[in-house]
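Table 4 source record.
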Amino acid sequence: MVKKKKKWMRPRHRVVRNLAYCILRPYMALRYGIRIERFREQGDRQYLVLFNHQTPFDQFFVGSCIRGPVYYLASEDLFSKGWVSSLIRYLVAPIPIKKQTTDVSAVLNCIRVAREGATIALAPEGNRTYSGKTRPFKASIVPLIRKLKLPVVVFRIEGGYGAEPRWSNVIRHGPMRVYAARVIEPETVAALNDEALYAELVDALAVDESTSGGLYPHKRAAEYLERAVYVCPHCGLAAFRSEGDRITCQTCGLQARYLPDKTLVGVGGEFPFRTVADWYDYQEDFVRGLDLSVWLDTPLFRDTVCLREVVLNRRKKVLFRETESALWGDRITVGDKVIPFDAISTAAVLGRNKLNLYVDGKVYQFKGDRRFNALKYVNIYYHHQNQKEVDRNGEFLGL
């Protein structure tokens, strides 16, 4: 006799959602000052909800616009926190997904939840923006939309990068808004080819915070910007250190201030970038031009990290509490362990600056100090993999 699967949707999810937002709505108003615009056209329909990703609170901003429970796709890190993960699964039942991979089980679970009549939500970028611009996302979202056969509603979060940049630990007050920007009906999905539907999604989700207005003042405005930048326009690969509203290259001393309007200005001289987005784009172009064969005997960077193995759906097992990691042109070393790039299936940044490597069915997580830059490992890894492509046109550098 085949055992019948338990339903994903449970009555308690609605109760938990309603009670949670009694607390979260006033908290979000006080903490972020965000303007939340209800999705009044929702009716009694279920949707596939898509949103751009700017802050760690985005799912709550979006959820506050919608009536009823929403089932979010969440990374495996959320499901590896022991009893906390068990409690989250019981209360809200998020759908697990492996970051930056094509996760077949996540797709099947989405189909299952949709068939039960529930609304599903995800951020196609899969990662928060470091620069303020919506990041490129995989076209695999298109076949998922076609499989689910649900109306799609695209929510835009604006001002989130100004209020809480991914690289920062502090929240600044300034204009912020979340609203339903576009609804794409199933009939429209059916009428568009894959390329046209993808273009529609890219346009609907596109937000460029580097050019938007508003002031977001804070006395520690530039603090931990070194989590996002590691290329100096004067001396190339470099380490940086931030303090207050300033960031300084530790090699040549180049210094810039991060202003309340999210622009950069040089200290004691000109600075070549107007925004973090400009700097970020330059950094990616610099990496794409790197000859990694030069860095096989000398590492590009060294860091001190804690290395853990993420045991999915259970816990994190500490392998090294404190050890040295090094980034080379074709590998990553940590302690006495060598991880060739060719053994890594995926690399991703979680949270502000944790690094996950997917190796032979295992997930290794690197966690450094507060100034640790995980982004450089992901960018260099993807640049190496792109160089192996026959057409040599690979542009994707992770995130």
